[in-house]
Amino acid sequence: MKKILIALALCAISTSSMAQWSFGVKAGINSSTVSKPLEEVIDAHHRWGMLIGGMASYQLSRDFDLQGELYYAKRGFKTDIYVELSEEAKPKDWYFDLHYIDMPIMLKYRPLGSIVYAEVGPQVGYLIDSKNEIKDYDEDTNIDDNTNKLDFGFVGGIGVDATEHLTVDLRYYLGLTKSWKGFEGGKNRSLEFSVGYWF
User: Fold this and answer.
1) What angle do CA 32, 35, 39 make, to 5 degrees?
2) Domain count across the chain
3) What range does the domain containing 102 cover?
4) Counting beta carbons within 10 angstroms of the beta carbon of residue 107, is it exposed (0 to 12), middle (13 to 18) or buried (19 or more)?
5) 10-residue mean pLDDT series, the chain (199 residues)
6) Is 1 part of any domain?
7) Least packed by Cβ within 10 Å: which of 17, 161, 192, 195?
8) pTM
């Protein structure tokens, strides 16, 4: 009888602990660019990208959660370039794409345990590929020698748990390290919208 009670107690503790953990997936879009003074050199414009990956959340209390994520994200910017030397020449779109594996750690606050939350936390990214491409030209160019592998910054945003399983959030990423070599600026800036699903 004693062994049965101990087994039941251990099962109850394990179930209670697992109830505090949640796991899910997320996907979304972002609009990104780079900070000055790189922006002063090449007149950078926003570039659309995407993100997709997984997330895990631990409930600290009724009002606070700690959430970690690991996902792929494409950021970058676009600018203009003249590829023809003539009076009739028009500028072409010149795309710079940076492909990252990002890992943010977010502290989420829910006032009175509501479905609406605010979130903030650090984020580290590892650059897995970087390319540039001129519109209407088939070839792209690897630019790994001009970019830094590690990216670090902070994320802040708001969100809502639309249903028991579905969550929607809007975030802003403020990069603190240079993403481009040889420039004092060139730090990543990104506005991100994503939808997540908790299992």
Assistant:
1) 100
2) 1
3) 21-198
4) middle
5) 42 48 97 75 82 97 96 90 63 85 97 93 96 75 87 97 95 93 80 97
6) no
7) 17
8) 0.82
